Amino acid sequence: MTVSFQQIISARSPIGYTGSIGPLGYTGSRGAGYTGSVGYTGSIGNMSVPNVLYVSENGNDQNDGTALNYAKATISSALSVATAGTTIFVKSGDYTENNPITVPRNVSIVGDSLRTVTVRPLNKSSDLFYVNNGCYLSNMTFKDHVSPAAAVAFNPNGSAGVIYTSPYVQNCTSMTTTGIGMRVDGSAASGLKSMVADAFTQFNQGGIGVYLLNKGYAQLVSVFTICCDKGFYAVSGGSCSITNSNSSFGNYALYADGVSSVVYSGVVVGDTIGSTFTIDNLIQQPNVGDAVLFDGDNTYYTVLTSTALSSGNTVIVYPTTTYQDSSLLTARATILAAIGKIGADVTDYLNQTYPSFQFNEFRWTKNIYSFVNAVVDDTIFNSNYRSTYAAIQYLNTDSSVNIAAQKSYMLASITIAVNDCLSLLTSGTNAYNLVSAYFSIIYDIVNNGVAAAPNPLSYTPPVSVDIMLTYASNILKYNKNFLIEEGIAFITQYYPSLSYNQTTCRRDIGYIVDAIIYDIQYSGNSQTANAGDGYYSSVTGALQIDSTELAATIATYTYIGTVAANCVNNISISPLNNTVVQNVSYPSSNLAQATNVTNLFGIVTNLLQNGYTSTVVLDGFYPSTTVSNNANARFYQFSVITASGHTFEWVGSGTNVNTALPALGGVADSTKQAVTTNQGKVYWTGTNQRGDFNIGDDLVINRSTGTITGRTFNKSLFAVMTPYILAIGGGGDI
């Protein structure tokens, strides 16, 4: 049924527009409900707009908030009914809220003006707003919150989950005493762990403007701090970038302290002096800019570069896709380009559909990404190995995760993911059908357990493959059970007193053999490394077998590697287990592939013994004495503030505005403009109240004297510039 605009108006009470609608618009009078000008585009009188709610001082929380005449009285009441995509308009007024109040994902709160909308906490020492992914706050002033409270923060219980669209605060003011304007606590969120602010003034006398901790991160533009104890304060690995901002008065402007807790660790290979270190036992590639601390040294050094992870001397490489079907490669690229949105759609669906379901969004999204990557790889190679193993790996997650309890939620997540992927493809095409089929494998395994996995797995030879790779792959496939039983027989003969679970051991050997079959067929080693990772906790990264079992496991894979290499060349061996027959009926491969098999098993044994390896180069400053072989190398994140074009006005003059102003006796202290303690870092350029320009602490252009001073020189600006002026023709007739 089509409803005219006139019918909609007629259906409402006469408080809104009461006249007729002529060809040029409204021609009648405006009722009492109309509060704006002719250009007003919001709700008119008691007319509602989808996904818009209103709050006003004369409202009532019993109202539904859908129009001005039905406005709610508090922001918290409006938030209680807001859903993703809702905008809450707060009319001019002074609001005291029963805080903390949570802003749901993708909900905006927009005030009339930061000068006319004030929000105060009923509980002054508690945070005012808890923000979530995609939130937006604008045109409000926050008052009266006191330490340790912040106007804007993540909920400490971690309910913010994965942040992929930063909460955004724009054109707001925090005006209080000891309170905090914005607290970005990385321990209370995952993903980007970030917030964004633009034109957010911090007039917190004795408090903190923007507080970054536990690897929290913020991007800040036009943020002004006034009379704060610390304007921008980064600790425990917190970091931010600041552009076009200002710090006036207060005790400190930019303050960075220390590093985060240990993020990952490794051990040094060989006695080393200088800037280049080989690090073993890593679970991730060291990040550029991370801090590293070596045993016996209290200095945190900075990572300048690091090499890709390797297992021993073997770099981890992925299969080549060059010659595969172009339409399938295009489908794969299209899906991978949208993988961030796919993960976001999954978590949004769970949060909206199952609000009581508590889950680690970072790990959950990581699982979804693993499924998507596996499916698109299987699609281009027409193999079901990656999808099968991704599902099995999920089911074999660290025992601290209750997989059974979350099954229905994961099945719903897989459904969202597959629908997103298929929506990017043309129905009925080969790519569409393959993606659907491989997601079905994952769904079936997650739903019904490992027993639902395809058996045997399929490894379709890629385009332009060397036939010897296929021969080697097939021989291992036909001898998989033989290799498993030889492994068990080896442990029985050489480790008779070892207490272990044979069923689990058979399963794990099978996973390794499957991965090696895949890597041989598709010319890589990434899946062998991935299967080897299965011995490490997916949650903590710790090896999950003890030292006694570790030695037996390494020896077993070394033995199986030798047996597998002989199998590839159809060399008969004398089995330790005479009840299982070696299959030598398939055409043999060659010595190169036998060596490849040995090397792949070597990746597994090295991962068990040494983890991953990377070569790290330190940035400039490095240990002056030898770091010993096997010394621990622990990696952290620095607390870092990067500020460009910052203005400092009378910083160091104190937090009381009545005494900090120069006219009232305030005295600036330039040493408090940018402060680092415990090896925190501040990278900055800026101008102070005298017009002096700094590039960090080490280079100053003095406005009044016209000199440039720094650690290595001290020259007159005139003396420096005159030769350049003359060189370009500035020395004409005088």
Short précis:
With 734 residues, the protein is of the alpha/beta class.
Please characterize this protein's 3D structure:
- The structure is a single chain.
- With 734 residues, the chain is α/β, with parallel strands linked by helices.
- Among the domains are: 1-44, no CATH class; 264-317 and 613-636, Elongation Factor Tu (Ef-tu), domain 3, CATH 2.40.30; 326-452, Orthogonal Bundle (Globin-like); 467-610, Orthogonal Bundle (Globin-like), CATH 1.10.490.20; 704-734, no CATH class.
- Helix content is 30%, strand content 24%.
- The strands form 6 sheets. The chain has an 8-stranded parallel beta sheet, with no helix packed on it. The chain has a 6-stranded parallel barrel with strand order 17-19-22-33-23-20.
- α7 runs antiparallel to α8, α10 crosses α13 (547-568) and α13 runs antiparallel to α14 (591-610).
- The longest helix has 22 residues, at 547-568.
- The chain is globular, with a radius of gyration of 32 Å.
The count of strands amounts to: 39
Number of helices: 16
Any idea what the CATH superfamily of one domain is called?
Phycocyanins
Strand order of the largest sheet: 6-9-12-15-18-21-24-34
* Biggest sheet architecture: 8 strands, parallel
**Rg computed from alpha carbons, rounded to a whole number of angstroms:** 32 Å
Shape: globular
**Low-confidence regions:** 1-43
What is the fold named in CATH at topology level of one domain?
Globin-like
